[in-house]
Design goal:
alpha/beta, Rossmann fold, globular, binds guanosine-5'-triphosphate
Length: about 375
Amino acid sequence: MDESTAEASASVAASDSKPTCVIVLGMAGSGKTTFVQRLTAHLHAKGSPPYVINLDPAVSQVPYPANVDIRDTVKYKEVMKQYNLGPNGAIMTSLNLFATRFDQAMGLIEKRKDSCRFVILDTPGQIEVFTWSASGAIITETLASTYPTVVVYVMDCARSTNPVTFMSNMLYACSILYRTKLPFIVVLNKADIVKPTFALKWLSDFESFQEALEQQTSFMTDLTRSLSLVLDEFYGSLKCVAASAVTGEGMPEVLDAIAAGAEQYEKEYKPQYERLRHEHQSAKVAAQTSKLGEVSLKERPVGSSMQSRSEMLADERIHLGGVEAEDAEDERERVFGQAEDDEEDDTEADKASFQRFMEQMMGAKKS
Ligand SMILES: Nc1nc2c(ncn2[C@@H]2O[C@H](COP(=O)(O)OP(=O)(O)OP(=O)(O)O)[C@@H](O)[C@H]2O)c(=O)[nH]1
């Protein structure tokens, strides 16, 4: 084995012992939550249940078994009332509050790092709340300084058949790639509605994208043409996978891409994140957000307000031809039972903590 191969194997082995964190981002309605649900079900069926964190405080229903749910820690509607904020401001503030306690989430992940190979994070519908906020940066950097971390950008390919829309979406993806500085996977979702062959072609063949643009007579066309020249280089850093969060199509390929991303993280991105950890930006932002007050984060007993276990199993069998119900149920019992045994239900303490925090905030506002 030559030196570089040995080095590569060593770094893969290193990442094997740690879970890979998967940050799922995407435009509103692109299918992030459905994708997390599908990937979670797929991993359960493979006997490798992930650790799942919901970071969307405004979602009404979480259809997967979340181990940590931001909604248990911060009540988004209360934040809206108390601070007199609109929905987006309240989502941003809720995420800031949660980020002040992300060290607790790291502690919970640390406890599960030997039993979970993946940590999946679902993010708010309004993508900019995560990608352009201090809290999003804190969460991303905290994860990436400790674990192999990849970004999965979910793109609604059914709504991107127009080259101008496609380009806008890719431009956004590009801005996130350069902001997060992490391995980046584009999931061309909703492949059951429109086969994303067109998108794969546009990504790999510059001429074919130009031809598609020729058919357009919008004032955006010239701008798009110029941008596509710039973005052509960016496409080289992308790994694109066609998938359907509804049918489960493409999930094995998504997992392969995540594994390749984790490997890439170890080789190319880790040193950069180790340097970043020592930089003062996170500390400064954390100090700013901590002015908002403190909240106490807790882990969920998995399987309460979500899709029932049997429903998830049935779902999995239908779409993926997964494991037999009893085997999967055994596996699930083991994991869920563990979660239930490990954690006490401290909802009351959490409510009281949130109430205290709100009273302090109101007191501060009045004085
Ligand atoms: N046909 C089809 N529909 C999908 C797929 N993925 C998601 N959807 C549908 O798209 C809609 C939006 O999906 P969500 O998972 O809520 O999308 P999201 O990005 O989490 O939405 P927000 O968090 O509100 O931004 C839902 O009606 C889903 O059923 C898919 O692969 N195929």
